[in-house]
Amino acid sequence: MRTLLLVEFLSTPKNGLPRLHSGKNFIAPILIIILCNVVMLAFVFGNIDHDWYIDNLIEVKTINASNAEKQQITEIYSMLSPTQLGITSMITAAFLLPAAFCLISLYFYMASKMLHAHHEFRQWLTLVAWSYIPSLLGVFSSIVMVLISDYGRYLPDTANPLSLNSLFFNLPLDSKLSSFFNTVDLTLLWTITLMVIGFSSWVNIDRLKSVVIVCLPFAIFFISQYLLS
Questions:
Q1: What pLDDT shows up at residue 2?
Q2: Average model confidence (pLDDT) for the chain?
Q3: Which residue from 168, 141, 175, 173 is spatially nearest to 155, judged by alpha carbons?
Q4: Where found, per UniProt (predicted)?
Q5: 185 pairs with which residues across the strands?
Q6: N or C, where is the chain less crowded by C-beta within 10 Å?
Q7: Between the CA of residue 48 and those of 52, 53, 121, 152, what are the distances in Å?
Q8: Helices in 48-175 by DSSP H: which ranges?
Q9: Residue 1 pLDDT exceeds 60
Q10: Beta-carbon-side half-sphere exposure of residue 144 (alpha carbons within 13 Å)
């Protein structure tokens, strides 16, 4: 039943939206997304050439640093083991992913209230959770990238072959825009498209307004990320 719902929602979102409206189907996709991301991170950090990765990480972090800062950064990163890096990344993902889903859902809930639409928080959480299912393509692509890499020499930040940076720009990690283009991939654009269609349909507003409302929190996040980098 859920497989049919998934296929219907991803292929023809308007036909699948009514079945998500009950707001009862958000737990399974959230757990699957978290589990797959945690497994992917364990795989990435479990197969990486640790010394090569740390050397590259230190090089990026110390580009504009003084000699004293370079020494301090080198000492800090040299103490990190692959296990520590992997566990830290997995725990972070396990907490940040559901937190992000809840924040986006809360934003949609508040925005819909302002537009006089009557939808509960769990309904928006269901829409957000199912809209993020395409992100699993990026997860599986990252695993494939790790499998075909030479001697474990890859950077976790650039392991997703579907990111805009991998596909088009190839910016180095020290570029201020690299974080944005490494984070934005084809699956995120697909996810945003599903959210736009869902918000427009449920709140009964035109597509252009829905695009602005849905993209606003993502724009704020990426602008903040750029300014803090």
A1: 66
A2: 88
A3: 173
A4: Membrane
A5: 163
A6: N
A7: 8, 7, 40, 4
A8: 50-61, 67-78, 82-114, 121-131, 135-148, 164
A9: no
A10: 9
